[in-house]
Structure formats: structure tokens, C-alpha cells
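Researcher: Before we compare anything, I want clean individual predictions. No alignment, no superposition, just each chain on its own. First chain goes here; please echo the sequence and then give the C-alpha cells.
Model: Echoing the first chain and its structure:
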Amino acid sequence: MKYKNIKIGSNRSFGIVFFIVFLSIGLWPILSGNELRIWSILISLIFLILGVLNSKILSPLNKVWFRFGIFLGNFISPIVMGIVFFLVVTPTGLLMKLFRKDLINLKKNSANTYWIEKKDIKSSMKNQF
């Protein structure tokens, strides 16, 4: 596995995150006038206690959650990047071709060099930072 050098989060943060998730699930029905989900609130309290104590009981769950995240990342990341490419980059490129824009001077010309002479020097190389 190529993800051995990635550090898994602490059991404390894992427990607190799942405390918040299950507490949200338990309290969500109140917004629509329904009753609390007691089972979810009990699970959230268990996660809170184990998370605050930094219990070793959460280690296997933390590892499973980490591996699930890596698994999802292998599929979701390429899908999101493909969507961004086809919805942003491709239409931008097509519009640039439609309006005959050559922003990075890719067109061939008869000049001896493609060097661009700068007439106005806007800054010096001193005190860059």
C-alpha cells in the first residue's frame, strides 16, 4: 500500500468528530417538530467519552475510517477533476478558439526569435521578499 507514510488522525479527534455526527443525527428531527433519536444520542455520548479518554477501543474504527477515506479518494478525486476539466477548462478553450485568442503566443510567425522584449521594467530584483 502506497499510503503507509500518511499519518492517521488521533483517536481523540476521531471520537469527537463522530460525537458531532451522531449528535447531529439525533437532534436533526427537532427541526421538523419530531422526537429525538435517542439511539443516536447514546452512540454520540459513547464516542465523546471514548474520544475524550483517547481510548484504544477507537483505534480499529479509526483505521477502518482512514482506509475508507483512501478508498473513496481513489474514485472521487478523478471524477471531480474530470468534471472541473470538462465544465471549466474545455469551454474556456473552445471560447478562446472561437474568438481567436492566443494568450500564450503559440502561433507560428516568421520572426527569428520568440523572445518578448519588455519595454517597461516594473520592478527590480532587489528586496523580493
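Researcher: Okay. Second chain, same rules.
Model: Second chain and its structure:
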Amino acid sequence: MLTRTSKVESLIVKVVSFSSTLQIGDVCFIDGTSTALAIQRETEQFYGTEGDEATLPVPPPVLPITENLTISKINKNPLIKVGNVNVLGVSSSSILGVGNVGHIRMQVKLRHIRHLENDNVS
């Protein structure tokens, strides 16, 4: 991993939810997954099959990078300095990180169903 120092004067975060991460400091690997089902109806009905995880959309697989990469860099000032950070929310398998991260893998599966009544008013 990189050798840098991160300095933040102040960090204010209101909400971290749904498989999200607030990472302060260095970490080698972060893996976050969130699966959500949201059903909105005007009438109270349950059809019995909405919660089946097999019906959620499946994202394509993330393939590993197999190319040989050569990177050469010089960090003349290995300090990342930030004043004030104010975050309202971090949600749905996301990350707010302060520091070095080697590898991150985040995934969200979301299915939102809306059943609205038909208005047959002429």
C-alpha cells in the first residue's frame, strides 16, 4: 500500500447505514454488500413471492484485472491534508474513507416495486 499520512481537522457524519463503512486509518481490504427490497402499494396486499432473493437483479460479475501494470511515482509530500468534512449520510454499500485502502469491493442489489391503483375516472 501507499505510504502516506492523512490528516483531517474535523469529520462530522450524521448517518452511516445499510452495509456502509466509515473507515478511519489504513486498511488492506473492504468488502461491503447490501441487498434491499422496497415495496410501495396504495392498498394492503401481499402476493407471497416478492421477498424471493432469486428474483432480485443480478449484477454482472466483477472480473479481476490480469494485465501486468508498471507504476512509478514519487510522493514529494506524502501528506494528504483536509480541513473540515461534513457528511449528511453514507448509505447502501458505500464507503467514506480517511486513509489508505488496498482493495475495495462494494455491491448493492436493489429491487423497488410500486403497485399503484388504476384511476378510471373519465
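Researcher: What stands out in the second chain?
Model: The mean pLDDT is 79. Additionally, The chain is about 0% helix and 50% strand.
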